[in-house]
TrEMBL record:
<feature type="domain" description="Luciferase-like">
    <location>
        <begin position="1"/>
        <end position="302"/>
    </location>
</feature>
<dbReference type="InterPro" id="IPR036661">
    <property type="entry name" value="Luciferase-like_sf"/>
</dbReference>
<dbReference type="Pfam" id="PF00296">
    <property type="entry name" value="Bac_luciferase"/>
</dbReference>
<dbReference type="InterPro" id="IPR011251">
    <property type="entry name" value="Luciferase-like_dom"/>
</dbReference>
<dbReference type="InterPro" id="IPR050766">
    <property type="entry name" value="Bact_Lucif_Oxidored"/>
</dbReference>
<keyword id="KW-0560">Oxidoreductase</keyword>
<keyword id="KW-0503">Monooxygenase</keyword>
<protein>
    <recommendedName>
        <fullName>Luciferase-like domain-containing protein</fullName>
    </recommendedName>
</protein>
Length: 335
């Protein structure tokens, strides 16, 4: 099992950008020292509440801070961006990291982002699949002629090529059944978001495996998983901490348009506690380690992607959680 650190945004436009850069740099340096092997950065556009710097230059800079770590986009909104541009950006990142890049992609869900890029609702999947097909062709090293509904190239043989033959592994994210099937047939791995419950995660993992087998494809080599995780001296204390974090983050997701299959519905009172318990890994280091071990043992998780930052909470608290994860949880898993 490998461990990844998620470089997520917790600041709005009023926070000095240098502060976000320096805190993420401290996060990856500390994670590298603790034994983490991966850093992950996602993508959003035109965000006012949470500021996302674009993932390829961000990961390039952060890889210089922690050069032993792999990098992954988690995720690029492939239904919106230009595939030729993204093929060469990811190739460049793969060169700069010495072939240690994963290409995490997904559809996206925010109406304001689709509107900004002129993407109609009914075109999202078609754009995604066409863009991924073209990117893989451009990474082949061969001369490419490709004409799709939305873009195309003629007799193109780009000199900008990734270090990894055929391109970096493609991790496809999403929590709906269609996204999981798409990951099974079009990608190299399914990258799970943190939204499904523990039971839903098991069901979708089985769907991924069954779909891949039915398509006659080999077993996926990687299974990266995101789960929200909170460490405390007791499970009760961890639940209380999760209550503080849950609403601030998930209300933003809802305002941005996240909805549909296997996504949280904001509850209140005891129902909220139950919902958190169904989605989070919570408790003492021993309890957290046991849950992570079960994900590896029962589902074949190869990478656990951990997010210590939460909106409204100080960076020092994220560093305390990261320190406990590295010094108290990871040794139990090694044992």
């Amino acid at each position: 099992m490998k461990f990844g650190i998620l470089l997520t945004s917790v600041y709005d436009r009023g926070t000095p950008p240098e502060r976000q850069r320096d805190e993420h740099a401290e996060l990856v340096r500390t994670a590298e020292q603790a034994g983490f092997g991966l850093m992950v950065a996602g993508q959003h556009f035109l965000g006012a509440e949470l500021r996302y710097f674009q993932p390829v230059p961000w990961l390039t800079y952060m890889a210089g801070q922690a050069p032993a770590m792999d990098v992954a986009t988690g995720i690029v909104l492939l239904s919106m961006v230009n595939p030729v541009d993204m093929a060469e950006q990811i190739s460049t990142l793969d060169v700069l990291t010495g072939g240690r890049t994963r290409f995490g992609v997904g559809l996206g869900y925010s109406p304001h982002e689709f509107d900004a890029f002129g993407v109609r609702k009914g075109e999202r999947v078609a754009r995604f699949e066409e863009s991924l097909a073209l990117i893989r062709r451009l990474w082949s090293g061969e001369k490419v002629t490709f004409q799709g509904r939305f873009t195309g190239v003629r007799d193109a043989q780009p000199a900008v090529q990734p270090v990894q033959a055929g391109g970096p592994p493609v991790w496809i994210g999403g929590q709906a059944a269609g996204a999981v099937k798409r990951a099974a047939t079009k990608g190299d791995a399914w990258y799970t978001p943190p939204f499904p419950t523990h039971d839903e995660l098991h069901e979708m993992r089985r769907l991924f495996l069954d779909t891949r087998a039915e398509a006659g494809l080999p077993a996926a080599m990687e299974f990266p998983v995101r789960r929200e995780l909170l460490i405390a001296d007791s499970r009760e204390e961890a639940v209380e901490a999760a209550l503080v974090r849950y609403r601030a983050r998930y209300e933003t997701y809802r305002r941005w348009g996240l909805k549909g299959q296997n996504t949280p519905v904001l509850e209140s009172g005891e129902r909220l506690r139950t919902d958190i318990d169904r989605r989070f890994i919570l408790g003492t280091p021993e309890e957290c380690a046991a849950e992570l071990h079960k994900l590896g043992d029962e589902l074949g998780m190869t990478h656990f992607v951990y997010k210590p930052h939460w909106p409204g909470l100080p960076h020092a608290e994220a560093m305390r959680q990261l320190d406990r994860f590295g010094s108290e949880v990871m040794p139990l898993l090694r044992d």
